[in-house]
């Protein structure tokens, strides 16, 4: 007989005096935690199935529920924590690779939390953003260093293709299939209202969303799902995904159970077949190969759209980015190792890659040293959690930032980290119609617009405090940053001074 050595992580606590036995929790929990004991007339819970998504807690009309972390404990030691012991039991039982979703919960240092922002005092006075204009618009793409004139000496006012954003914040790649139709609809509508961009991820573009094309970045990943000439022409930019921060060096896998209906049509693969993206692009083994793909995509879209190359933040990222800049890419997207994912092997997510702060500073510096910084723009992503992170990322050298987990939180995600199971109770990471319809796209887009609007106000306040009135003047302005509690090596890589200097 197989012994169950795993204990529930969470415990469902029901206040029996408050509970009216309305059974809403039973209907709301797709994990089957709650059930009515008809004979006894009481509600029961199976805590082993609870992923702590808080759906039942938020919807219980009597306020009778709470989820607590179980106080069951292992005999732990410095090396053998309860989590490690549980994972070994799980693998001994299943023989399989452990899968996880969202960003790594491991407590690696967050450099953003060890960086402080400057403010003007006495000289170089601060600017009041309520009374004076602040420029939050940015353009992403190549910035030529020379002016061109025609034969009669007139200026040629043409630039390579650019993405123009009213705020330096874009919604990062999340594929239709890993997230629901309604989640994509909310992101597309919010991007349009905000004057920014959302990203299809590697799942193709649903026909209903072609109308948002001018605010869409279409992605070309190693699986090439849903890629055809119309798709490439539909977006405002094309992103070649080489790597992803949460799972550098490996491909993707969307289980056949999620390849249903529109998802299968949009990806152009049969229903029920697993969507497996290979680890490498099978036609890219060098920067020259990458250049061929960059120029094939430019050729296919009449050189009208910027091409982004997305890479994961890994050990030698600065040299890789230098190669990418020379491949002809217009924009480099850098994805740090704390970035989210719909599904990734746990060991990869928690152990591979480097923090975005270090990668971003190293890449910006390398491109400056090589005199090619204006050949590409940089979008930084992978754990941008607040307006302060945006300001710090831009001062470290980013032109703009990608957000994804923060956007999903705005849509109602409670970071239960079980997206890979396809039973998202908040209608986000699911293709089950009865769950997907729980997310109202109109409400979702309003919450996304609210979030980015709030961050924009905060960015303006921080910029004003520094006496800076334009994002362009903040980009790479590391004098505005100071480190706290860092080694001199860390400060040197970030290119910032220590607080007090
Ligand atoms: S939703 Fe609340 S009140 Fe209704 S059965 Fe569940 S615990 Fe009881
Ligand atoms: S999985 Fe979510 S909805 Fe189900 S019991 Fe746990 S917190 Fe409630
Ligand atoms: S998207 Fe849904 S399943 Fe994924 S972490 Fe958020 S609430 Fe959980």
Automatic annotation (TrEMBL):
Its EC number is 1.4.1.13. GO terms for molecular function: 4 iron, 4 sulfur cluster binding; glutamate synthase (NADPH) activity; metal ion binding. [4Fe-4S] cluster 2 binds at residues 29, 50, 53, 56. One of its GO terms (biological process) is glutamate biosynthetic process. Keywords: 4Fe-4S, Amino-acid biosynthesis, Glutamate biosynthesis, Iron, Iron-sulfur, Metal-binding, Oxidoreductase. It comes from the Bacteria. Residues 10-39, 41-70 form the 4Fe-4S ferredoxin-type domain. [4Fe-4S] cluster 1 binds at residues 19, 22, 25, 60. It is an enzyme of class 1 (oxidoreductase). The keyword DNA repair does not apply. It catalyses: 2 L-glutamate + NADP(+) = L-glutamine + 2-oxoglutarate + NADPH + H(+). Belongs to the glutamate synthase family. PANTHER family: ARCHAEAL-TYPE GLUTAMATE SYNTHASE [NADPH]. This is glutamate synthase (NADPH). It comes from Gehongia tenuis. The lineage of its organism: Bacteria, Bacillati, Bacillota, Clostridia, Christensenellales.
